[in-house]
Amino acid sequence: KPFILHPVHQVKQWLGRTKILGYLARDGTIHPFNLNVKTSKEPQDNPTPLLSNPVRYRAVTISDNGEVLAAVLPKSSQTPDSKTEINPLIRLELWPSFQDLLDFCLDGVETHSKRRWINLPPLRSGETEIQLSSGASHFLILTHTPLPSEDGSKEEVSDYHSTLYAFGDNRFGQLGIGSRSVSVNEPQKIEDLSALSSIDCGLFHSLALGHDGELYIFGHNRKSQCGVGSSQVDTTTPILVDLGGNGEAGDIIDVIDARCGSEHTVVLTSSGVWLAGSNDLGQLGIEDLVSRSEFQRNDNIPIADHPNTHSAWNIKTGRWNTFVWIK
User: Fold this and answer.
1) Pairwise CA distance, residues 308 & 302, whole Å
2) Cα separation of 32 and 21, whole Å?
3) Could you tell me which of 267, 263, 212 has the C-alpha nearest to residue 245?
4) Sheet of 292-297: strands edge to edge?
5) Residue 217 to residue 233: CA distance in whole angstroms
6) pTM reported for the whole predicted model
7) What is the pLDDT of residues 248-294, one digit of tens each?
8) Per-residue model confidence as pLDDT tens digits over 85-138
9) Highest mean pLDDT among 7-16, 70-79, 165-174, 248-257
10) What is the number of alpha carbons within 13 Å of residue 89 lying toward its C-beta?
11) Which residues contact 164 (CB under 8 A, 6 or more apart)?
12) Which residue intervals correspond to the RCC repeats (predicted)?
């Protein structure tokens, strides 16, 4: 059986939760991935054409129960990196499994009862990017104005807009809509959060990061993953988290990035890496197995308090672990 080449430079997003199932390529196509596939870092290597279906996607997320939410790339855009000022509406597909999506992409095979279309209102002016995130069985959808790139190739954003939607399982308030319910079938807009830059989901809790460094958390808190000081109260509406409680009086700590594990939350700031929630498996990295009900800075991770000091610059979470990059 011939190997299929997967040039790493063409991968926009790896897809999978506990193992890699496939990837979203930069041209918007979906590709499967398995142990019999070899990868390549050489730019001249081209992946073997697999797709018979012309549908391309701009973002994809796979929930822990296996459902796939995929945002369809507008036909007017040739690649996911193309930007249009106005899209007529946002079209998303909800599939029961990644295999169902693959069958559709690879062979053009679709049982119409399997795919559910979700349409959102037209993007507001300037909201040209979309992010998706998923938990055990809930989904967040964020549309927003593009942020300036680190190399300065994009101009500074002067009029920033974003819109956040949520649907799916809401037993613990993880949709942030102010109530609990077994399930919400249609996306609901979360009000009063108008300047968001990123989102992430744990199994049953969610977070949203503000454009100016604000951190909002909502949902399941039985393991203190929301970091609000009590593990007995779930939060059904977004709560603004204050990290200054463990620092000096009057400190204002802006958040650079934030990520959800299954039952823990990790926050990257200029003052270090802060963590809250379950620590049963040592996922907080604080040299014990005691959970934290409030965000605590991990003093084992260096911060940039001196020009020559190495510091944390990137964070990622698995469902039960945490990764921190140091530079």
Assistant:
1) 11
2) 6
3) 267
4) 255-260, 264-269, 272-277, 292-297
5) 13
6) 0.84
7) 444 567 889 999 999 999 999 988 899 999 999 999 999 899 999 99
8) 455 578 999 999 999 998 888 777 666 668 999 998 877 666 678 999 999 999
9) 165-174
10) 7
11) 140, 141, 142, 176, 189, 190, 193, 196, 199, 208
12) 162-212, 213-271
**Residue among 304, 266, 258 at smallest CA distance from 285:** 266
Q: Name 283's Cβ contacts closer than 8 Å, sequence gap at least 6.
A: 261, 264, 317, 320, 321, 322
User: Is the CB of residue 221 less than 8 Å from the CB of residue 234?
Assistant: yes
Do 284 and 299 touch, CB atoms closer than 8 A?
no
CB atoms within 10 A of CB 7: 16
Handedness of CA 313, 210, 148, 22 (dihedral sign): positive
CA nearest neighbour of 227 among 278, 190, 181? 278
State mean pLDDT over 137-150.
80
Per domain, the residue ranges of the chain are 5-248
Give the residue-averaged pLDDT of 21-32: 92
CB within 8 Å of 251: residues ≥ 6 apart: 244, 271
What spatial distance separates the first Cα and last Cα of the chain, rounded to whole Å?
42
Q: What is the per-residue DSSP string for 7-61? A: EGGGEEEEE-SSS--EEEETTS-EEE--TT-EEE--TT--PPP-------EEEEE
HEC profile of 134-157: ECCCEEEEEEECCCCCCCCCCCCC
- Rg over alpha carbons for the chain, rounded to the nearest Å, is 20
Cα–chain center distance at 2: 34
If you ran DSSP here, which 8-state letter would residue 125 be given? T
